């Protein structure tokens, strides 16, 4: 079949069925998600198989799995659907009251613990039909690639020097302090740079391969290294670990202050001087002019401003 003849047989509805069937790996679940009858989805899948010359989805035990060709179709089909959404929704303008956009963002949980809940609350209050998909930042995630490919709309986190190949919006900055248990010896005795470095520290797992984090990056510039005894990928769990041990968490004051009334912990000044922690939202040129993406970035900014005033 010639390329033009093949193209003429494909419509956006078929692409939507293709992506949903591949994502759900089930005709029945795809039918529910699409709001279609199962025989109609099966008929669309038969058309797709004829067009592709491949089964696309095959039986495997009690379930179904994509073929190699099917796996290769997942990202292109998702990309086509995202492009179609931007093409028409942005042409009409973005009306949050009626829009059904899917917002996807990646964020570090180093943020103020109220940040993401407040952001979701604001999005759902103003855009009730929109969906929100959140991802964490981990050593395995390549947020630059995800932004470029359209998998995520924005990344929120803290960087000493954010990448210069992305658009950037500054959100807030924060003083670096230490969170310790009420029973920590430094509460009674105080500490200097040496005793702070020798104390038992807890630190988050780096958000990407090769990263050390802003605290350890700065220490390396000074030719120093602290005694990290625990690393944890779940930043929100660290304050509770600090409260029941002699571990020291060094991070932003705004984050630490949220736990003073919840846990037997207190804030101590750090005996070494650190630059203020800088928090940003980053986005790709791909979504820079998008009306819906601009609206999302403004929501992020407004939440950051509100929390900074608390």
| Helix-residue proportion | 40-55%
- Broad CATH class of the largest domain: Alpha Beta
Mean pLDDT: 87
How much is the radius of gyration in Å? 24 Å
Following the backbone from N to C, one meets helices and strands in this order, namely HHHHEEHEHEHEEEHHEHEHEHEEH
Query: Unreliable segments (pLDDT under 50, ≥5 consecutive)?
Result: none
Q: Which fold does the CATH topology of the largest domain refer to?
A: D-Maltodextrin-Binding Protein, domain 2
The end-to-end distance, rounded to whole angstroms, is: 64 Å
Major sheet details: 5 strands, mixed
Percent strand: 15-25%
Class of secondary structure makeup: alpha/beta
**What is the overall silhouette?**
elongated
The tally of helices reads: 13
* Name of the CATH homologous superfamily of the largest domain: Periplasmic binding protein-like II
- The main sheet orders its strands as 4-3-5-12-6
Q: Please give the domain count.
A: 3
CATH architecture of the largest domain: 3-Layer(aba) Sandwich
List how many beta strands DSSP finds.
12
Task: Give a written overview of the molecule.
The protein has 310 residues and is α/β, with parallel strands linked by helices. The protein folds into 3 domains: 87 residues, Winged helix-like DNA-binding domain superfamily/Winged helix DNA-binding domain (Arc Repressor Mutant, subunit A, Orthogonal Bundle), CATH 1.10.10.10; 101 residues, Periplasmic binding protein-like II (D-Maltodextrin-Binding Protein, domain 2, 3-Layer(aba) Sandwich); 100 residues, Periplasmic binding protein-like II (D-Maltodextrin-Binding Protein, domain 2). It is built from 13 helices and 12 strands. The strands form 3 sheets. A 5-stranded mixed β-sheet has the order 4-3-5-12-6, with helices on one face. It has a 5-stranded mixed β-sheet with strand order 9-8-10-7-11. The protein has a two-stranded antiparallel ribbon with strand order 1-2. A hairpin with a 2-residue loop joins strand 1 and strand 2. Helix 2 packs across helix 3, helix 2 crosses helix 4 and helix 3 packs across helix 4. The longest helix has 25 residues. The protein is elongated, with a radius of gyration of 24 Å. The termini are far apart.
